[in-house]
UniProtKB/TrEMBL annotation:
Keyword Kinase included in the entry's annotation: yes
This protein's name: Mevalonate kinase
Organism of derivation: Chryseobacterium geocarposphaerae
Keyword vocabulary terms for this entry: Kinase, Transferase
InterPro entries per record: GHMP_GYDIA-like, Ribosomal_Su5_D2-typ_SF, Ribsml_uS5_D2-typ_fold_subgr
GO molecular-function terms, A-Z: kinase activity
Domain of life: Bacteria
Keyword Transferase part of the UniProt annotation: yes
Length: 301
């Protein structure tokens, strides 16, 4: 049985605006998704799919890929998404799901599904590597989105990413001197990224604003002082708040916090980033936000 691993990701800049070509800075996480695969010459043309969340079985499906039918499953909606995605794999691949062999495919998501670290993007990248197809193309036709998370999973590195006029990305060394002062707090809920993206798309935006986020990303990447980094994060957060006409996460949950708090990805859930201050653990725990990671706990750089 073969094995592939893709790390999860945290999007530090240009959430939403990534879709319109703003420059994104994103980093890989220590936890990600494993993909195990085996193939048997049994003449049945079946796919035996098992998806685990932190080593506990979550989804099981048997799919007939000759007729693309779900023969059995415990969660029909999730199995339908897997069927659609694997059918896309077949259309893009020169070798997978072409004959009469059966495939035994297993995934294991190493982090809780509500963390928003990229359960779908790590799957797309693992399938792309396994089938020797372009994971960006697979992601585009299966899910949509800018694709920045695919770049992180593919490179296993911090990346600068841009989706327009065409996808381009580069590995970057993002190792700020103040990284041990940064913390990541989970908001106890998963935000629906597609719902957030649809809301963003419904609003009129200018190229000037997109360019402003690219400039912020470049400046954030070059920061070597926490104070400057914090100021840029506050500016970034306020710009998106003004555009979306949604209060910042700090205004909603942490109005009396003495330092910056910045959303990471779709607003309203998943993780936020902040920095340490005297009594920071007691402060966040007192508001029932008890999942707090330091840089070294979660970031794989």
């Amino acid at each position: 049985m073969g094995e592939i691993f893709s790390p999860g990701k945290l999007m530090l800049t240009s959430e939403y605006f990534a879709i319109d070509g703003a420059l994104v800075l994103a980093v890989p996480t220590k936890l990600g998704q494993e993909f195990f695969f085996d193939e048997k010459e049994d003449g049945k043309s079946l796919i035996f799919w098992e998806a685990y969340h932190q080593n506990k079985l979550w989804l099981k499906a048997v799919i007939d890929y000759e007729n693309w039918q779900i023969l059995e499953t415990n969660i029909i909606s999730s199995a339908e998404f897997i069927l659609k995605t694997l059918k896309n794999v077949q259309s893009l691949s020169e070798t997978k799901f072409k004959g009469i062999n059966s495939y035994y495919l297993k995934t294991n998501l190493q982090f809780p599904a509500d963390y928003g670290l990229g359960s779908s993007s790590t799957l797309m990248n693992n399938l792309g590597k396994w089938a020797q197809i372009d994971p960006f193309h697979l992601n585009s036709i299966s899910l949509g989105g800018s694709g920045y998370d695919i770049a992180v999973a593919k490179e296993k590195s911090a990346v600068l990413f841009q989706s327009k006029p065409e996808i381009k990305y580069e590995r970057v060394n993002f190792n700020p001197s103040f990284k041990d002062e940064l913390i990541f707090i989970h908001l106890n809920q998963k935000q629906d990224s597609r719902e957030g993206i649809n809301f963003y798309k419904s609003k009129k935006k200018s190229q000037k604003l997109v360019d402003e986020f690219s400039d912020l990303t470049r400046n954030i990447l070059l920061c070597n002082e926490l104070e400057n980094f914090s100021d840029l994060m506050l500016i970034h957060e306020q710009k998106i708040s003004d555009f979306l006409e949604i209060a910042t996460v700090k205004a909603r949950f942490f109005n009396d916090c003495p330092v910056f708090v910045k959303s990471l990805g779709a607003w309203g859930g998943d993780f936020v980033m902040s920095s340490k201050f005297a009594g920071f653990k007691d402060y966040f725990w007192g508001k029932d936000f008890t999942t707090i990671f330091e840089w070294s706990d979660i970031i794989n750089l």
